[in-house]
Specification:
Blueprint (H helix, E strand, L loop, with lengths): L6 H31 L2 E4 L2 H13 L8 E4 L2 E4 L16 E8 L4 E8 H5 L7 E2 L11 E2 L4 H7 L2 E7 L5 E6 L1
Antiparallel strand pairs: 1-5, 2-3, 4-5, 4-9, 6-7, 8-9
């Protein structure tokens, strides 16, 4: 008499394998999405922070920032200093570096540009989240499309009288 094939066990084994592989794929995808944001906070002296800011700004020498802060209000320059080239590639990320001299802390954040594209033409709102400024967001009337037209380069280089500094650029 021929031995019966245990189909129930085979199906259970295949289903278990698919679930394990599915969980592993979700975990790997989550890790890579998390790494795209790459939020980092580090203690830095004023001299080290200034050196790091200067190194970044040197890459954009001669370029006027896309956004200036004048009397506490953001001013957007729609005419870009960056000339579009035929081989211009789409922006991949917005990079933000913030220096807080009171805590001697530098914060770095990378925002994937695909996330900004999801705003679908709505203006970007920025907020310091600081009660000193009322925590009110800046309404820039700048969209992801405006930033793409501007192209890679310096977006914002702002220094407060207290020594706080914010640097934003696109690549």
């Amino acid at each position: 008499m021929a031995k019966k094939t245990p189909w129930g066990l085979i199906i259970l084994g295949i289903a278990s394998f698919v679930v394990i592989v599915g969980v592993a794929l979700v975990a790997v995808a989550g890790y890579f999405i998390y790494q795209q944001f790459a939020f980092q906070a580090a203690s830095k002296t004023r001299v080290a922070a200034e050196a790091e800011f200067d190194a970044i700004v040197r890459e954009f020498e001669g370029q006027k920032p896309f956004i200036d802060v004048v009397d506490g209000e953001p001013v957007v320059h729609k005419g870009s200093d960056v000339e579009a080239t035929e081989d211009a590639r789409p922006l991949k990320a917005i990079h933000v570096v913030v220096w807080d001299p009171n805590e001697e802390k530098m914060i770095r954040l990378n925002i994937p540009f695909w996330l900004l594209r999801m705003t679908k033409g709505k203006p970007i709102k920025l907020s310091s989240g600081d009660e000193e400024f009322g925590g009110e967001p800046f309404h820039l009337n700048v969209t992801a499309e405006d930033l793409e037209r501007h192209g890679p380069g310096l977006i914002l280089d702002h220094r407060e009288s207290s020594g706080q500094r914010v640097l934003v650029w696109a690549r």
